[in-house]
Design goal:
6 copies of one chain form a homohexamer.
Chain A lengths: L1 E6 L6 H13 L2 E6 L14 H14 L5 E5 L6 H11 L5 E3 L3 H9 L3 E3 L11 H10 L9 H10 L2 H9 L7
Parallel strand pairs in A: 1-2, 1-4, 2-3, 4-5
Helix pairs in contact in A: 2-6, 5-7
Protein name (chains A, B, C, D, E, F): Nicotinamide-nucleotide adenylyltransferase
Catalytic activity (chains A, B, C, D, E, F): beta-nicotinamide D-ribonucleotide + ATP + H(+) = diphosphate + NAD(+)
Pathway (chains A, B, C, D, E, F): Cofactor biosynthesis; NAD(+) biosynthesis; NAD(+) from nicotinamide D-ribonucleotide: step 1/1
């Protein structure tokens, strides 16, 4: 059985890793869709799809997880076409894990088996909170896998990027 | 004389029907543009263009109205191209009915005759209020033509869809 | 039972009309998709989607045919998303009539019932041949319904348009 | 040395003119990108790219400024592709003037020299405030070059346009 | 009176320059649309819109021509929307010069005055032939203004680009 | 060192596998871009990006190859934006392997190290020839890795798809 999950992974954190481990207990393979792949360089979406791909891939390998496929998925501007868009970009699958009402409904209408995700420690494992910590200079090292921390701080100049973007200029030129 | 109106029709309600009847008193035909055709499966735009087409077509037939053309119209991301976009998708027309300031201005700049719509009972005939009633489980049956009520409840699983979409999950996966 | 057919209808000719009559013998309603809706003003696609809509609608009414829905459908640049695109724009249907191998395959993969179209007199009822006759000044009046002939010659300046487009200029300016 | 600046210029005001004069003290040529070129006919973006082109071009000529290139630039929906998009539409340049954090970061990541703009009298030279004055019927003549005032009031019907757009109609038809 | 012409200008050659001089005898200003602005790096369209902009602008200045506006114009995939697209990007104009049948027809249907271009020496002033000469290493220096020759050979590495693109590899990887 | 290659992989054959093995002798990781990701269900591009992803991933795992990233890459309609598009979707890389003149030129202009691919047995390892064999019912089993053969014949109904698409119908409906 192959399962599908989708997230924005801005950034990929320990909660994401736990979810993937949980899914792989009941499924042979997991397809990890990187959602809103076209977005980056904003406060909500600081990292490119390729940067997020690197975070996920290196973390799973470091955790000795194999049976995964990572697929960047750009948004389409028509909800009823979205499932067909995902299907065209991924290996075949029949089970979807999500807590997002729209994702849930769209796959349900296309006859997929949809399961809810286990509730995890939302407080500390939240992309929103991690990005806030990055901007404010607080410690976020423990919220993400070590591989992700290294990629963002060493390889991507990620902290400088998100802090510079946090400066505002209401009316440019 | 052929007239043009556009609306999102989320859903098509009794106010819409009254407007079309009024327009057909002064015009031979009416072109009904289904606006924002690409949107669906959101709280503001729950129904697809095709579902809205079905609501309108069946209601007009049930009311013995004939001289109409229904045309789904997707948004374009350039206002000065929008009138040409509409023209390319519809039979020719020369008169436009609208209360929307942007629609009014765009057709005015292209030399169309633009007329305001008669003021109707806005309180009870409002798409926004009908969608709120659907979500809260209140009675909305009297706000729409019987044909529309039957399509949404029997044919489309429409109430389940809008209620599920109303669940929120801030930070999916 | 509602059936779906799609064509470019450049222009709508007597063969198209025969096909629709045949389909309505076995089905309650027919959805007529106007394919490649975004194309016009070329030798292969001279008429806009709206002009084709007018041809079809007026002809069916003149033939006392009622149970139809006409829907302009723009191309999408991804074949596996095309069926979902059609579904989002049309009332629900479950049976498709087509002789086009791609259309046939795409609907088959989405579990639709797909039927072949009856073979008609292809020689005289061919959009390609009718457009050639228009350009060369030959008689094409008998190839199309009278309503279509009147629309193209009186209402659209259609013959001048296709003849002017047939002039070539290899290297403009 | 050729410099690049980008703005929405809704409308082009005296602050913009001062900035261009300042830049040309240190650079041989300036490329003026008209940003969000696809937007117009909204309260925030009332004028088309072509109308803004006319304002800028005529003003610079009236001020005897020559060494400029004006280029309308539509938005792209992917930030990391935006610099390549600009590069494809403009003559080559190597220095960028901006106070916008995103523009600054995107050009920085592509190895451009990025300079901040001199701080000008932001209070009176603000596009937002000028558009508010237009809507409210206040005097905005002194905020823009005379050429711009003449274009908006004589040539474009610009004041009527922005005032009509300021009317609201929550739920059209 | 402001006139409009459009070309691909791959590259801008002496024939183009003659046409612009001729047009400016009868018109106060000329808007020069750079067509197919999104295309570059192919054998038919080797130069970017920005590179073509530079060729045209520098040549006109070198010839002491002033009253021009240069506007890159990307293609749209709908012919009936193309005129509105051009209008949104350019200063207002009312007269069009073209020999292209499609451009002629589209502006004619939107009520513009359309004039044919004077017939020039097509044999030697042809973009197609100049690009062939570039690829084959023949002499093309006399076919273009000196400014254009210098830009392509000194500033753009243009000859290397078109020659490398002329190598073929049917089945990459 | 991370290397990048791109292909359409319609289908992934033994030549592709040899190339990847060769590249991994000189590089730590290889990013495999699936080009023209949006195309499928045509004679030239029968398989979806997701189906091609599955072929590549399963084959590399079966060959005990690990250090790879697979990324579907849709075409963009602007060559000078293509490299930035690739960069946004992939982990960072600095070396490109290709024999395609356009890919070579585009990466060269963005300062990448570009290497040619080793010449392999083009006659038998050609996507074009394999697709022809599929259509004609000839034996193509030895041209592809066993994993690919099994996916196409067992998991995808791939042979039926390409044969049905090979039927032609010039003028649908």
């Amino acid at each position: 059985m192959t399962a599908f999950i989708i997230g924005r992974f801005q950034p990929f954190h320990k909660g994401h890793l736990e979810i993937i481990k949980t899914i792989l207990k009941d499924n042979d393979h997991v397809i990890i869709g990187i959602g809103s792949a076209q977005f980056s360089h904003t406060l909500t979406n600081p990292f490119t799809a390729g940067e997020r791909y690197l975070m996920i891939s290196n973390t799973l390998e470091a955790n000795n997880i194999k049976n995964f496929y990572i697929v960047p998925i750009e948004d389409v501007n028509s909800n009823p076409m979205w499932v067909a868009h995902v299907e065209s970009l991924t290996p075949p699958f029949s089970r979807v894990y999500t807590n997002n009402p729209l994702v849930k409904r769209l796959f349900y209408e296309k006859k997929y088996e949809v399961r809810s995700l286990p509730l995890l420690n939302r407080k500390s494992w939240s992309g929103t909170r991690i990005r806030e910590k990055m901007i404010k200079g607080l410690d976020w090292k423990d919220d993400v896998p070590e591989t992700v921390y290294n990629i963002i701080t060493n390889c991507l100049d990620g902290i400088n990027r998100i802090r510079e973007l946090a400066n505002t200029d209401e009316d440019p030129i």
